[in-house]
Amino acid sequence: MPLRPLDQSSKLKNVLYEIRGKALDEAARLEADGYSVLKLNTGNPAAFGFDAPHQIVRDVVAAIPSAHGYTDSRGILSARRAVVTRYETEPGFPQLDVDDVYLGNGVSELITMVLQALLDEGDEVLIPSPDYPLWTAMTSLSDGRPVHYRCDEAAGWQPDLEHLRSLITPRTKAIVVINPNNPTGAVYSREVLEGIAAIAREHSLLLLSDEIYDRILFDGAKHTPMATVAPDLLCLTFNGLSKTYRVAGYRSGWLVVTGPRDHAKGFLEGITLLASTRLCPNVPAQHAVQAALGGVQSIEALVAPGGRLHEQREVAYTGLTSIPGVTCVRPDGALYLFPRLDPEVHEIHDDSRLVYDLLVSEHILLVQGTGFNWPEPDHLRIVTLPEARVLAEAVERLGNFLSSYRQ
């Protein structure tokens, strides 16, 4: 008797994550055949020689003998206290208690938990375009409807507030803010954040603020936490250790709840319920939080002029903008560039095919702009983590490829 076919759940029909999409499968095949592939598709610091701060590693190693049991479902007290202390030093940040903090297996798990606790079928979430695609994917997986508000490239990729406002319906539940932004590297102005808060206030919307890159800032850029401009609104702030502290593999993130709670008791109880069903975050990585958030912040030297991250951004930006038909907004934060290919020069109809053809020809793996829910096939995202000489060579090869590439 033949076995009954097993297909994937219909819930996955609209769930896409092109950062690790089909092109990555081809990259793996090329590597299996002995080729070296430069993977500029994921912001994975360890792959490019960024070592974790030794204090963090030491504390995790020291904790391992006693880290083999479950903890409180929110996370260990010392780590949550360290998160509270971090925000107590942030001017204007609303008052916090340790019970307002949830630790997670990376921010990704916390995003999933929050959207599952929030959404009923057909509920809408306003998400920036371009976006970090996990927000769109998890909204869909939670039976919600992602609705994308435009960010304006001509205005340095700041959100278009009028477009955002025009998308609100009776089913809208929340606004997602990604600041500093992935994939554009934009750092939002206080005025724009105040505008988003005003819209949320007018329509009684939840604010979901992804601030994982809040300390990766260049050239004097200032990050304003969303919670500081909306203390009277329920705001959930997401952050973690993956990027600033170069321990992406530890999967150590946190969620902070600020603002009024009485109108959202059921929703917050839902988050606590889901935190309990996963039992607890992975315990060794929880012991990294206190060491990371206290003491010297090593990221500051990396993003300052002369620092590795600063110089790599400069090399990539200069190289990209020297390619005929390519323009790029200089990013103020994060680890990416999001260059535009002028359709009058580079007539691209399918940017996923462009990424695949570049991989096969040059063994460089990027991500197409449509993978970040950008509507036109005219952008690419490039990770700026490789050493400057490697980035310079990769951008030069990209330029040479584009000079003769046709679809």
From TrEMBL:
Pfam families listed in its UniProt record: Aminotran_1_2
Cofactor: pyridoxal 5'-phosphate
Matches recorded under CDD domains: AAT_like (cd00609)
Keyword annotations from UniProtKB, A to Z: Aminotransferase, Pyridoxal phosphate, Transferase
EC class of the enzyme, as a word: transferase
One annotated GO molecular function: transaminase activity
Domain Aminotransferase class I/classII large residue range list: 37-398
InterPro entries cross-referenced by the UniProt entry: Ala_Aminotransferase, Aminotransferase_I/II_large, PyrdxlP-dep_Trfase, PyrdxlP-dep_Trfase_major, PyrdxlP-dep_Trfase_small
SUPFAM superfamilies, per database record: PLP-dependent transferases
EC number: 2.6.1.2
NAD listed as a keyword: no
Family of the protein in this entry: Belongs to the class-I pyridoxal-phosphate-dependent aminotransferase family.
Protein name: alanine transaminase
